[in-house]
Every structure is written in structure tokens, then in C-alpha cells.
UniProtKB/TrEMBL annotation, chain A:
PANTHER family: CONSERVED COMPONENT OF ABC TRANSPORTER FOR NATURAL AMINO ACIDS-RELATED, HIGH-AFFINITY BRANCHED-CHAIN AMINO ACID TRANSPORT ATP-BINDING PROTEIN. The keyword Nucleotide-binding applies. Gene3D superfamilies: P-loop containing nucleotide triphosphate hydrolases (3.40.50.300). One of its GO terms (cellular component) is plasma membrane. GO terms for molecular function: ATP binding; ATP hydrolysis activity. Involved in beta-(1-->2)glucan export. Transmembrane domains (TMD) form a pore in the inner membrane and the ATP-binding domain (NBD) is responsible for energy generation. Keywords: ATP-binding, Nucleotide-binding, Transport. Residues 9-243 form the ABC transporter domain. InterPro entries: AAA+_ATPase, ABC_AA/LPS_Transport, ABC_transporter-like_ATP-bd, P-loop_NTPase. Pfam families: ABC_tran. This is ABC transporter ATP-binding protein.
Automatic annotation (TrEMBL), chain B:
GO terms for cellular component: plasma membrane. This is Amino acid ABC transporter. The keyword Membrane applies. One of its GO terms (molecular function) is branched-chain amino acid transmembrane transporter activity. It comes from Bradyrhizobium macuxiense. The chain crosses the membrane at residues 7-26, 32-50, 57-75, 81-100, 107-130, 150-169, 200-222, 234-264, 276-298. It is a multi-pass membrane protein. InterPro entries: ABC_transp_permease (IPR001851), LivM-like (IPR043428).
Amino acid sequence: MSPDKSPILKVSKLVKRFGGFYALDGLSFHVVPGEILGLVGPNGSGKTTSINVISGLYGPDGGEVVFDGASIGGAASHKLVHRGINRTFQVPKPFLSLTVRQNIQVALAYGQAAGDAAAAPPSMAQLLEEYRLKEVADRPAADLNSAQQKMLDLTRALATRPRLLLLDELAAGLNPAELDWIAGRIKALAATGMAIIVVEHLMGFIEQITDRVIVLNAGKEIFEGTLATAVHEPQVIEVFLGGEHAH
Amino acid sequence: MRDASKHLLFILAPLVVVFALLPGAYQNHLLLFNFVIFLILAQGVNIIYGFTGYLPFGYVGFFGAGAYGFAVMVMHLQTPALLAVLVGGLVAVALGLLLTPLLRLSGAYFAIANLAASLAVLHFVANPALEGITKGPYGVSLTGTFNPTNAYYAAIAVLALTVGGVVYLKNSPFGLALQAVREDSVSASMAGVNIVKMRVIAWLGSALVAGLAGGIYAWYVSVFYPDNVFSSEFSIFAIVFALFGGVATITGPIVGVLILYGIYNLIGFTTPQYFQLIYGLLIMGLVLFLPAGLVSLATRRGWHVP
């Protein structure tokens, strides 16, 4: 990550309400191309909600999401996909009755940015190979185990050539060997210039791959910096472990 | 598109040729015509239910709208039958456009709302206050255009169009995207698919074929009442036939119509007193043991069914 790059995504004072509950309450952060940013925080602190707003699943109730210099808050998901944003889901959501190959085909056929015909979409064979889905390529997605479904969810996202990739607990449920392997893959993607936001509870994994973390609590950022510094911050310790540990 | 030409050559072409030649060999032309109509309707249900997951319990609304679109054109404007059939199809598409807000609903809610919508259209058409336009509940008589032979061949042409449409869905990225929307609309939009547009296109496509079928039905029978062309039997039969064979395939609905409508007529002729019992048991057995239709017998064994 080079600090002089201008941010590809800038979130400022983002608000998302569900009834009277503020899931996001003035959240601000940014991410630059090639950076891996971690979003950490206790359950209900707004990590997944912020990903849902950035990827167009929810419209924001306040604040601004700026991607590539344009305000995108409230735009439909498929349009954001065409602009270069994609994501994975905490619980993978593949098209269960379609084969793995067909799952990826949909994203290859419909996920490409308009007017960007010059850049070739990624090749099916390469995606299947790189994410260990080659052997199951012609099986229905329903037959896959949960780790494979996560990889399929990721390849579906990558098939649209995102410039900003949001990973919602991709690592949860993977075994240590798989974790090392996927950490390597995520770093390789960032090395190509892709901005990546990682929501994760596994701190070791966060430590291993992120350049920087944002700690969230009650819909706001309370810390920004490296994970190593975060663990010495009293406010961070307080929200994670409770008040009495902070002193 | 090698598969698509195979499907056209080995499924669509034989079906059309057989039904085009059958009237020469078999005397009951009305029965043949009904077979063709149900083949169209079952494939229409396949387009909307099989590929997008919306169960159209009021599918007959489009059929009846097409029949009355035909009747109004012929009665008031003396248009030639073929043109009136096209208008019937367009009337059904217009009705489909009017009903697009229903696509916000899903599952049983959509099915019930669609059923209610078809009843609303029936009572609108059958309203005595509209006697000057639709002849209200008193029915229409279109003796001027009566020509069962031409109507039968027009029905075969619409069947070819409909099956051709399903072959396209089965072999194109568009059809794949529709199925993706059916499986998980959130993931589909994250694959870049405009889910609203997709659903509306499939919905209007299935409305169009039902409307064309309704127009041709009006042409063929020439005398009918609102209750005939808005009979819920059309919806239910088309849905059951499509489900029995297996939706989201080309052959499923065809097999479903040929077998179930065949049995229906066989029981109806020989032992009408047992008809509803046998038919009911058959449908229960289907839902319990073969929810994905007859084709699942083959797909379970890993065979590919077009």
C-alpha cells in the first residue's frame, strides 16, 4: 500500500437505521487501491451493515458513499457491480440448482462493466483452477461443502472484475491450511491493485492480511490504524473485553 | 449453440410435424387442438414458473384477455382473424404490464394475488355494464371468422414460437440469468443481473404466449362465455402438466401434457365417475414422491434432460 494513492472508496458520516435502531451512526473511513482494510468490532457493531450499504443491498439513511469520485449511495446492486464493486456473503448464496460452472457463467455474462469491452473477463478455467473448484465444476452448487461454497461465492464476485472487493467473514469455518492458502490469494488480489475490505472475527487472520484496520462500535469507527496498535488502545479493549480490562 | 440446434431439430421439429399431420389420421380435431393449447400454456407456465419461480395461479387471466381481445377486434372492427390473434397477444402483454407490481410478492402471496387478479379481469369483462363492448356475461358469437382448420395451424405456429422461446432460455445466458434470479435474487444482482428487468421480460413473455393461445382459442371455438375462457381449469391444468413433467426443461412440460392430458381424456371417456378420484390421487402422488417432476427420475441418475 502506498499512502499517496487517492482513495477508491470514501465513506463519510454514513447512517443506516432499522426502525429506531442505528446500525450505522455516522461511520467514516476510506480505502485506497491495493490496500487490504479490516473492519473489526463486536457483534452488531455495523460491519456487515456497512458492507450491505456499500454493495447496494440497503440504501443509506444519511451520509455519503463515494466510489471512484462519484456518489453511489442508494444505487442498485447490479449497477454497482458494473462500476466495479463486488462482495461475498457471510452465508454463501450460490445458485444451488445450477452447476458451479453455470454459477460463474452468469457473473461472466452479466457482470462486466459497460463500455469496457477491451479488458477481457477472467477465464472460467483459470477461476475454477485457482479457487479449487475444477473437480466439482459440473456438479450442482448444492453438492458443495461450505468451504467450496465460499470459494464459489468469491469466484462469482471475481468474475465481474471488481476494483473494490468486500469480503464478509470469508475465513470463518475454514481450516488452518485453507486459511493460509486463502490469505495468500487475498494478498495476491490486492497486489493487482484491487482494494479489499475484510470483515472478520478471526484476529490472527486479520493480522496476517490487513494493512490497516477500522474498529467499529455501535455503528461508528472508534479506532483506525494497525491491529497491533489497536490492541493497546483502551477504548478498543473496552468494547471487546468490557470496561474493567481497560485499565 | 450446438445444443440449441439439437433441441430445435429433435424436440421442436418432431412435435410440430406430428401435430401438423395428426388431423389427417385422427378424427377428433377438437381434442388435438386442446392438446396444442395446453402444450402452449404449459410451456408458458414453464417460462414464468420454471425459470423465475413465480407460480401463476391466475395464468388464465392472460388467456381470457387474449380471447376477448380477439373477440372485440372481430366484433367491432371486423379485423381479419390473424391480426385479431396478434391483438389478443398484445392485450395479454398490456395486462401483464399492469400486473407487474405483483412481482414484488413472492411464493404463495404472488400465486394468490395473481389468482385474484385473474378473477378481477373475469368480472370486469363479464360486467353487464360493458355489454356494448364485451357482450358482458351473455357471451360472444364470432361466426364470421369461424375457421377451425386455420386456427389449428395458427395454434401450431404459436406452439413452435413458445417451444422455440424455451429452447432459447435453456441455451442462452439470458435463461441462465433468469434461473439465477429464481435461485437467489440477491446473489444474482451481485452477479450483475438486473433482476427487475429479467423478471418483467419473462412475465411478459409468458403473458404473450397465453394471450396468443387465448386469441386462437376464441377463433377456434367462435362461441364462448366469460366463464369458459377464464375458467381456472386452464391455470390449474397448465400448472399441473408443467410440474408433472418437470419445469425448467424443454421436454418436461411436453411430456406432462401428453401423459396427463392423455390420461385425463382416457378416464374421461371410459370411467368418468372415477375421474376426479384418480386424477386427484395422481397429483398427490406426484407432489409427494416426484416434486421435481418426471424428468427428475432421469436427472437423479445423473442423466442430462434437455
